[in-house]
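Could you help me review a protein record that somebody else here produced? Do not assume that whoever made the record got everything right. The record follows directly below this note.
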Amino acid sequence: MPLVPAPDMLAAARAGGYALGYFESWDSYSLEAVLAAAEAENAPVIVGFGATMLADEWLDAGGIEFLGASGRALLEGCRIPASFLLNETHTLEQAVRGVAAGFNFVMIDSHRWPVPEARDAVAKLVAAAHPVGVAVEAEFGSLPDYHDGAVDDSHAYMTDPGAAAEFVAATGVDCLAVAVGNVHLLTAYESEIDLERLQAIQAAVDVPLAIHGGTGFPPASVAAAISLGVAKFNVGTRLKRGFLDAVLDRTRSWSGKESVHDLVGSHKQADFLAAGQSAITETVRSLLRLYGSSGRA
C-alpha cells in the first residue's frame, strides 16, 4: 500500500474519534515490529525515525538518506495505511533533506528555540514540503524532561492557546504538538495532564493536536484527550526500554554453544534482537487498542 498523506490520516482519526500512534523506530527490527503490530491490529499507523537522539555527524553524513531509503523499502509491502515521519530533526536543513529522502511527514525539534526563530524555520519547512505533498508537524510549548529520577522543567513552558493559534496561522503546519503537562522520557510514573488547557487549545487551534511524551501519558486521560482534539500520540522511550530489557533477558539464557551467526542479525528465532522486536510488537498492539485505532484500517 502506498504511503498515505498524514493530514488525511489525522483527519480520519479526528472524524472517527480515535488517535494515531507514532511509534518511534531506530533500526529495521524496531520498524518491522511496529508494522507487525499495526497489521495484527488492522490499524492505521505513523512509523518513522527520530533524529533527536542521533548524532548530527551521522545524520549529516548520509544518515537521513539511509533512514529514508531503508524505511521506504520496509514500507513497500505494508498492508495497512501508514505515514512515514522524520521526527524532531536538529535543524531545518536536516528536515528538508528528509523531504528529499522519501519521508512524507517531517518535523524540526524547535520547541526550545526562540519563538520567532522557530516560526520562521517551520514556515520555511512548510514552503519546501507542501508543494511535494509532504506534511509538517511543529511543537508549540516545551515539555520538561525526566532524568535521573526527577523532572527537569527549567526550560519548559505550557502551550498558550492564543499564541499557538498565531503560530499555526503564521506557519501553515498540518499538526501541532502541545505541552499540557506531558513529559518527555517519563518512565517512573504518569504525568498530570491539564485537560482545561487542552480544551482551550482545541478551541483556538484548527489543526489536529499531537501529544509527545506518550510513554508517561496516563491511560485514563487518553479518551478525554482524543475528545479534545488530540489525533496523535508519540511513544519512544517505552519501546526502547522494553526492547533493551527483552534483549538482555535473552542473552542471559545463552549456553555459550549457540552459533554466533544465528544469535546476531539472522532474523531467526534465535536472534537476540528478535526478542526485543517481539516486545515492541506486543507493546504497540496494546497502545493501538488504547488509542482506539485497532480495526480502523
The first strand starts at residue 20 and ends at 25.
